Amino acid sequence: MQISDLQDIYATPFFDLISRARSVYLEHWSGNEVQLCTLLSIKTGGCSEDCGYCAQSARYSTGVQAEKLMSTEDVLAVARRASENGSTRFCMGAAWKGVREGDSRFEQVLGTIEEVSKLGMEVCVTLGQLSVSEAHKLKAAGVKAYNHNIDTSPEYYPSVVSTHTFQDRLNTIRAVQDAGMDVCCGGIIGMGETELDRLKMLQVLTTFDPAPESVPINCLMPMAGTPLEEQPPIEVFELVRLIATTRIALPKAKVRLSAGRTRLTREGQALAFFAGANSIFYGDKLLTAANPGVEEDRDLLRELNLVAQKPAVSAACGS
């Protein structure tokens, strides 16, 4: 899709835009299903990267302490609770630059994935950069989807991160696709980028072949001590416009209302669901940021007559 096409869609009068997005959504999805995902940081803090939004970077004084990789048993305990609470996807994230074949920590993560995959939820991981060989190992262990966000436009990316390039992100995404895993890829808004940057990010996502299975749209949660700590919050209508545009541009992708939901009213979240969002992070914490509580989300979904989408467990997970 051309950037001019996305600009035309985004500039559509608001109610016409969300009505069109709703129509596109209903062509491809059940109107009352939402994917519930739980995100767990299995290795927190001490990351060598300098992502300007991230409290886990060792380069910033954010109060987040470097921790060891969680044991398989501890991860399983959290995964079981997530399943009992109704989550259908369990995503594990590690704060490091990437994984390396033969590294003991990577081997431990593979073992953890194999155990979590037996619980019946979709397994997603976000482990930084990886090669095709490492991607194949993750797939064989039971990973359905790999999260690797491109964050923003190629042009604005160097303003946010300097320790790797936008192309590095694309290389990892290509490795994930070559291994047969689904790609979970989106971005963050509110980092000082322009409206055009947001649409250029979306335009890149429309070039993926195959298309992203899911697209997380995060609102920046400014973290004290990071370069972006003073960024103002995003207006809800900007968020909803981007969700609607994403739904029209990528009709078959799950569009995830991700970080920043604690700043949204119930009405704002309902508007986002109407405009095409059909996935949320479920649980009171993301990697380091707060998230609405389980009971709060249950009440919201009940009020909106929304139900949990069933997991699509991959063949690698034994189904």
Oligomeric form of this entry? single chain
The helix fraction, in percent, is 25-40%
Q: Which spans have pLDDT < 50 for at least 5 consecutive residues?
A: 314-319
Named at the architecture level, the CATH assignment is Alpha-Beta Barrel
Q: What share of the residues does DSSP label as strand, in percent?
A: 5-15%
Query: What sequence of helices (H) and strands (E) makes up the elements?
Result: HHEHEHEHEHEEHEHEHEHE
Q: With helices defined by DSSP (H or I, 4 residues minimum), what is the helix count?
A: 10
Mean pLDDT: 91
CATH homologous superfamily heading? Aldolase class I
Largest β sheet strand count, sense and barrel closure: 10 strands, parallel
CATH class: Alpha Beta
**SS-derived structural category:** alpha/beta
